[in-house]
Amino acid sequence: MPAHAVVGRGIALVPEGRRLFSSLSVEENLLIGGQLGRTGPWSLSRIYELFPALWERRHAPSALLSGGEQQMVAIGRALMSNPKLLLCDEISLGLAPIVVRELYARVPSILAEGSSLVIVEQDIVQALRVANRIYCLQEGRVALTGSAATLTRDAISAAYFGA
Amino acid sequence: MEWINIVVQGVLIGGLYAMFAAGLALIFGVMRLVNIAHGDLIVLAAYIALITSDTLELNPLLAIIVVVPIMAAIGYGLQRALLNRTLGDDVLPPLLVTFGLSVIIQNALLELFTADSRRLRAGSIEVASFPLMEGVWIGVLPLLQFVVAVAVIGALQLLFYRTAFGRAFRATSDDQSVAQLMGLDNRHVFALAMALSLAVIAVAGVFIAVRTNFDPAIGPARLIFGFEAVIIGGLGSLWGTLAGGIILGVSQAIGAQINPGWQLLAGHLAFLFILALRPEGLFPKVKG
Questions:
Q1: Is residue B111 assigned to a domain?
Q2: Nearest residue in chain A measured CA to CA from B160
Q3: In whole angstroms, what separates CA B106 from the centre of its chain?
Q4: What's the pTM?
Q5: How far apart are the C-alpha atoms of B117 and A56, rounded to whole Å?
Q6: Which residue in B285, B187, B167 sits closest to A29, CA to CA?
Q7: Per-residue confidence at B188, pLDDT binned at 50, 70, 90?
Q8: 3-class SS at A87?
């Protein structure tokens, strides 16, 4: 399947490092995300409800946003395609802990609209807070798996670094 | 008064250069492709205008309506069948392939139409003119050409910055691989950009054919005018290409006035001067 056909099947990606379209405004980035016109719960106004900070900056060039705001745009852009499955790569990358917490606080609202999320994350605390199921990958192999409720931070660090 | 006249005529011809430049800048902006065959495609458009106005017995200026969709279709097909295959991390293949294309177009036109100079006859509008002020006469045809050039560039600007179509162009230009994640097929987007570029030069080709003699070999010089106007204007905005075209046109007109042999030289000197002082052009792209 060619790369451009993937999103039509209901799989959207929030790429590592955000990769916004830097010459487009915030709103234009979101509109590009929704350009296939897949129907579903997400629309421009719903994205602005999810991330109110973006409403005020909707006409700003995306390159001038803070890292956290850019991440919001990247998530919003992916949601605009109304995906069944949303893949998020390193949401916390390069962001301040308080910003990361804010972003993760929005995850339950995204799940509530019926999308499934796969999050690749190094920030274990945040990942444990939102996940149902956790997989620890060690050199390409699953070293540990379980529901988030049953896994402790100690068990996870043991899986990575040895007890 | 004489000098005002020269500047006015230079501005009017600048519109034509701006159309060459807009077509070049558009495809370079969207897909980083430098089209060496651009000038020869302009000449091809002039010959297509010649055929259509002869066979349909149309006024050449009306032939634009036929030539534009033909050139756009050629552009779309050329990009899908040939040029898309040359695009990649290496900038050399598209240069070489479009250079080859330039040679092929020139020789095919030579074979089909011989090396004779041709001209399209548009009737009385060719010589119609009106006085702007004492000693300054404006030709109706050059004025029409300039107005059309401004309209074409204004329309491109609207298309690029106000429509979903233009958004797709700009997104693909920013980041091809992420654009594909958004469901944009970059091969199709590139082909649309090439179609648009050739539609613009189709208009330019018809005006060249009406205003001057043309033969299969004049393409490369038009390419250079286009390049110079793009570089003078900078890649930041389409209006920059209009400014670049006008500066080039005025410089050439002034050069020709000083000495008829200096027309092209003066244009090249203006280009070198701006390249030396402001290598990024007058309206550079703002980096985020």
A1: yes
A2: A24
A3: 17
A4: 0.91
A5: 60
A6: B167
A7: very high
A8: strand
Give the Cα separation of B18 and B233 in Å (integer): 9
Report the residue of chain B nearest A17, measured CA to CA: B178
CATH of the domain at B157: 1.10.3470
- Give A126 to chain B, closest Cα distance, Å: 26
Q: Measured between alpha carbons, how far is B2 from B88 in angstroms, rounded to an integer?
A: 51
In a domain, B133, yes or no: no
CATH number of A10-131: 3.40.50.300
Domain boundaries along the sequence of chain A? 10-131, 132-163
**Which residues neighbour B197 within 8 Å (Cβ) at sequence distance 6 or greater?**
B23, B24, B26, B27, B35, B75
Q: Round the average pLDDT of chain A to a whole number and report it.
A: 92
Position B288 scores a pLDDT of 39
Domain contains B263 = yes
Is residue B95 a contact partner of residue B106, using CB atoms and an 8 Å limit?
A: no
Is B284 among the domain residues?
no
DSSP states along B142-154: HHHHHHHHHHHHH
Whether pLDDT at A146 is above 70: yes
Please tell me if residue B182 touches chain A, with a CB cutoff of 8 Å: yes
pLDDT band at A125 (very low <50, low <70, confident <90, very high): confident
Position of tokens 């920013």?
Answer: B174
Per the structure, the count of domains in chain B is 1
Residue B288 to residue A2, Cβ atoms within 8 A: no
The whole domain housing B216 covers: 2-119+147-277
